[in-house]
Amino acid sequence: MNRVALLVFCFFTFFTSLFGQTVEIPSLALSGINIKLKGEGFADSIKSFEIQFVKDGSTENYKIDLSEGSFDTSFTIHNSGNYKVIFSGIEKEETTLNVIPGILSIIPPLLAIALALIFRQVVISLILGIFSGALFIYSFDPLTAFLRLIDKYIIAAVSDVSHTQIIVFTLLFGGVIGLISRSGGTTGIANSLSKLARTRKSGMIATWLSGLIIFFDDYANALVVGNLMRPITDNLKISREKLSFIVDATSAPVASIFIVSS
Cα–Cα distance between 199 and 248 in angstroms, integer? Predict the structure, then answer.
């Protein structure tokens, strides 16, 4: 009986060491920027192994040291291109890594901002910015980038529970703000505050204080303070950009500081 148990234990140990190894490596990386690499489930007898990145006959070697059968490290590849990743010293199949120039990472946000300023269409500008990023990720294939834009980035983002909660909350709260505005409530509060905010400086201070008062949620803060103070700041010749900055600086930061908030 003891021999059977010993054989079962040895077989289980061998099976775990052979198939229990997991190595997490991304399929896409940016040149000159750290790449995270994790792994676990290695046998105690394995103290280290090597990873080879092969491209066009050139090879880059990295030695990975294990601690208690796992590792969590990062490394940097300075040249872009498609690499074949070879693991030496462990039971792991080859994989591929696509490294694109790191400078490309700033193009999608810059493009989205530029298009928003030119055409004044925020949603369309954001979608086009995401599409440009998908082009870089999927090797400049416009059809694949468009399909992944829909199913991976738009649908996946909308189907996320936290994202859906934010969208529904914003729509409902925006509807309430619209009702208050149409009923004259916003105008009444603005008329009351206009007695205190008579200069540009006092108008900006009143906007800042309003942002501190509404601390329970960052989205509610932006919706309420922005709609409330917009007619006042317009009368005081305070630019919309200045108003947007003050509202943004007192929305999420204030909600993050207060203990009781969403």
Answer: 21
Alpha-carbon span 94 to 12, nearest angstrom: 25
Compute the distance between CA of residue 122 and CA of residue 55 in angstroms, rounded to an integer. Answer: 40
> How far is Cα 205 from Cα 13, in angstroms, rounded to an integer?
68
Model confidence pLDDT, tens digit, residues 203-252: 899 889 888 888 888 888 888 888 888 888 888 889 999 999 999 999 88
Distance CA 119, CA 234 (A): 22
CB atoms near residue 190 (< 10 Å): 18
CA dihedral (63, 66, 71, 75) in degrees, to 10, reads: -10
Q: What pTM did the predictor assign?
A: 0.62
Q: Decide: helix, strand or coil at residue 171.
A: helix
